[in-house]
Amino acid sequence: MRRVLYILGQLTDQDADWLAGVGSRRQLRAGDILVRQGSQLDELYIVLDGEMSILSANNREIARVGVGDMLGEMSFVDDSPASASVRALGAVLVLAVPQAQIAARMADDPAFAARFYKAIAVFLADRLRGALARFGYGEAADDGADAAGLLRAGELDGQVMDNLHLAGSRFERLLQRLMG
Fold this sequence. Notes:
Layout lengths: L1 H7 L4 H10 L1 E5 L4 E3 L7 E7 L2 E4 L5 E5 L4 E2 L1 H6 L6 E4 L3 E7 H10 L1 H25 L23 H22 L1
Antiparallel strand pairs: 1-8, 2-7, 3-6, 3-8, 4-5, 4-7
């Protein structure tokens, strides 16, 4: 859930409400494929409930994602095909937000564009730090990061700490709106 804080911490309440309004809920069952490696993505996904497996080309699990994780953000940023497949491990609920809707809002609202790209940049920076730590680069194994590469509880960076309470309440409101 902590990764959603990186995203929603950069956005406004209106941005979060907008995402919930233009996005649609998508329910997956165990084994359903949300993303196929090599496919062009038309949507960004935020995991609202459940856990998913990120799979390499040879169908080997390379990571797991859960509540609050974003999927499809790399393809949104550079318009490249999906670099991995994503499969539901059980019942999963995602918010699917059309990339075209996001692009249109960015064109009409430069402040939203700046906030949204900043949110993605912070999210991707965290993911990269985690990957580097898993491969033994950077700090020693006890660098304050957990197995997913996230900072341990109480050790969130200053940017996230400043907006932590806002991000948490935005996510709760988003879930309430989408879950009914």
